[in-house]
Structures are given as C-alpha cells and as structure tokens.
Amino acid sequence: MSGPSTVPIRVGELLERPELEVTAVAGQVGLERIVVVPRIQKPGLALTGWPEQLHDQRVLVLGATEVEYLRDHEAARTVGIPTLLASDPAC
C-alpha cells in the first residue's frame, strides 16, 4: 500500500483495510455510501442526547467506552442513537 487513501471512498472499502481494525456492527446496509469528509466523529455527549458538537457527513467512531455506555444505559440507546443518526453520518 502506498499510503492512506483520500476521500471520496466507499464505506465498504474502509472495512476491507485490515490496518484500520474496524468492524461493521449493523450488517451490510450502507457499505456503498461514500465518505466525502475526511474527519471522524467521536460521539461523546451526543449519546446523552446533546448533539451540538455533531457534524454531518463524518464517520462515526464508537470505541469500547461508547459501546459499554450504550450497553449499560437504556436512555443512551433510545435517545442517543437516534440523535447520532439524525446528524447524517457517512457511516
């Protein structure tokens, strides 16, 4: 590999790059979406329903802390996830 790819890039192409160590957790829907903004979005407070720092078209990255928080807090699942999706993330 000659170097990191630049946008635009298909979401499915990101999953094919083992060095990124990313996993699709919601199936195959959306793998043809195109990433046009080369920035990630860590959801942080958006999981509590506070979306002011969310930016559209970014790649959402949920780490172990966010996943554990979602697992342990029903309100985060019922309010936070719809808040994240309303920001129109690339994936």
SSE order, one letter for each helix or strand: EHEEEHH
Low-confidence spans: pLDDT under 50, at least 5 residues? none
Helix count, DSSP H or I runs of 4 or more residues:
3
Q: How many extended strands?
A: 4
Strand portion, in percent? 5-15%
Rg from alpha-carbon coordinates? 14 Å
Structural class assignment: alpha+beta
Strand order of the largest sheet: 1-2
State the end-to-end distance: 24 Å
Globally, the shape reads globular
What count of domains describes the coordinates?
Answer: 1
Question: What's the short version?
Answer:
This protein is of the alpha+beta class and 91 residues long.
What does this structure look like?
The protein is of the alpha+beta class and 91 residues long. It has one domain (9-86). 30% of the residues lie in helices and 9% in strands. It has three helices and four strands, in the order βαβββαα. The protein has helices spanning 11-15, 64-72, 74-86, and strands spanning 9-10, 34-35, 40-41, 59-60. The strands form two sheets. It has a two-stranded antiparallel sheet with strand order 1-2. It has a two-stranded parallel ribbon with strand order 3-4. It is globular, with a radius of gyration of 14 Å. It starts with 8 loop residues before the first strand and ends in a 5-residue tail after the last helix.
